[in-house]
Amino acid sequence: MPRFAELNIMINRLERGPLNGITDVVGVAVGHETLFAGEGVWRPGSGPFRTGVTVILPHLGNLYDKKVATAVHTINGFGKVFGFEQARELGRLESPIALTGTLNVPRVADALIALAIEQNPHIGVGFAETGRQGYASVNVVVGETSDGYLSDIQARPIGEKEVRAAVAKAATGPVAEGAVGAGTGTSCFGWKGGIGTASRVLPAEKGGFTVGALVQSNYGRPEELTIAGVPVGKHLRPPEGANRTEDGSIMIVLATDAPLNSRQLGRLCKRAVLGLARTGSAVHGGSGDFVIAFSTAVHFPDRPEQLVVERPYLHLQPIMSVFSLAVIESVEEAIYNSLFMARTVVGRDGNTRHALPVDEVMAVIRRYGR
User: Fold this and answer.
1) How many beta carbons lie within 10 A of that of residue 32, not counting itself?
2) What is the CATH number of the domain that holds 345?
3) Which tens digits make up the pLDDT trace of 298-314?
4) What is the count of structural domains for the chain?
């Protein structure tokens, strides 16, 4: 299964990073835990399972003690994201970002809370030994899309064991894509979707900053699929009987090493919808489409004993256009990677999501002179 860049279809205006993934932003780590178990007829609470969890860490240190700037954006709010409101209010991220299947969200959030308390025993009880002030809780962030077409969604099988495993596997190298982790049971334009990632590097005269995107794709109707401007969905459909589609959802995670504050990151979040639209998405009313962005440039200590008054700051406006392009191109390509890297998955009751047939896609694209 080739990554999209290997097919030389899209003429991108910005350079890709060395890994062409969110981990091109130095320090960012990604880990997956996949649950692929059982065959045949759905037995509620017992499988089959085609689900998992994916975690994105801005750095490998203590995220509660060394928070990063963040922003969130809701494109369409038919979803069950956890922790967005405090992130929106305070502009700080203090936990890994976890992606999973819809009904797993509370269990994954609970697992992240347990991990945070384990690493920071003062959460909720204060600093009795030092006399420092503070009895704050922790705000964990979990996003989701539904994998119920292929998996036993009622069982909610992803909990602390799986989250711990994903965190333990988190690495700063190449990211596994397709039907893995939170993308194990998802669909995209009636085909098999999943996890995809891509990155762009700004020109040296624009700072040389990196922008990376990671998506959990689970949206779109077959006829809407557009690849590099070509209406592929008008000519290519999933096999008969495998084209049941719903409005679906997508989670988009953006990372950058540019010293942007939460307001500036919010501007980048809003540009992600343009990359989504390039793939043919109409952002249907029944979809849950969310974006979260963070910057790795500055770490904010939890309750510092002294005021922190000096922080790096980037005057964004003169180079906003190139940052926008980096977001748009990386989101678009990450979505294509989620499709092109996915394999066919047969789930509960024989429900099937077929891998996008690359040769047939290329034949359609050649008809358009690309």
Assistant:
1) 23
2) 3.60.70.12
3) 999 887 777 765 677 78
4) 1
Main-chain phi, psi angles of 246, to 5 degrees: -130, 180
Cα–Cα distance between 218 and 101 in angstroms, integer? 10
User: Catalytic residue at 302?
Assistant: no
* Candidates 151, 217, 281, 287; catalytic one: 287
DSSP character string of 178-209 = BSSGGGTT-EETTEE--EEEEEEE--GGGT--
Taking alpha carbons only, the member of 369, 365, 370 closest to residue 233 is 365
CA distances from 245 to 21, 56, 251, 287 (A): 28, 28, 18, 12
Report which residue type is found at 260. L
- Whether 338 is catalytic: no
pLDDT of 10 > 90? The answer is no
pTM: 0.96
Residue 200 domain boundaries: 4-367
Per-residue CA distances from 265 to 71, 109, 282, 307, 340 (Å) = 6, 24, 24, 23, 29
349, 336 Cβ separation under 8 angstroms: no
Residue among 126, 96, 93 nearest 114 (CA): 96
Confirm if 224 and 189 have CB atoms less than 8 A apart.
yes
Query: Which one is catalytic: 24, 152, 257, 289?
Result: 289
pLDDT tens-digit readout, 153-191: 999 999 999 999 999 999 999 999 999 999 999 999 999
Set 187, 249, 295, 330: catalytic member: 249
d(CA 48, CA 150): 8
SS3 for 32?
A: strand
Q: Are 45 and 154 in contact, with CB atoms under 8 Å apart?
A: yes
289 noted as active-site residue: yes
